[in-house]
Amino acid sequence: MDLITFLSQSSDLSDVTCTEDFAARWKRARLNKGEQISHQGQSETDEYVVLAGRLVSSICDEKGKEVCVGFYVGPCVVTPNIARTRNGVSLVSIVATTDASLARIDSKKLSGLMITSQPIRDWANAVLRDSLREKGEREWCLAALGGAERLNWFRQTFPGYEAIFTHASIASFLGVTPVTLSRLRARESRGS
User: Are 94 and 55 contacting, i.e. CB atoms less than 8 angstroms apart?
Assistant: First the structure.
């Protein structure tokens, strides 16, 4: 999908001229499978739209244990910079799990556009609200649900993702081990 088509799907950006001008401010990029757009602990200033392809975001602790915290299937907006950085430093790593096509814009440039354009401000605020809602739902899932219920929540929230992302990433995202996820899936297929 091209960026203008993606942006024009938002009711906030219904003005064609505004949408075309906004889209012209973004830079296009291609990622090969395995390439990162963000590295945990390194400077990060961009906002991203995934136009095609799939990405995963993760956090790695000091012992090297990696935890998946997000999935992106294009076309979509990556979690806003303000929610994945602290003091301009990335809190997550984001890697392409397939070849991908992206659009990116510096977050300060986007903030400037938000100040001067009500439709862009409304669009960006809607993106942030959606991102916060999704993160809140995941936190609720991890705090309130058992393993089988977490898997059901995942399937309802992310239909089809079980077939396109690794089960290790999904297990990590759900706060269970890959073995537990495998057992949950096997138990379900047996109908018990």
Answer: yes
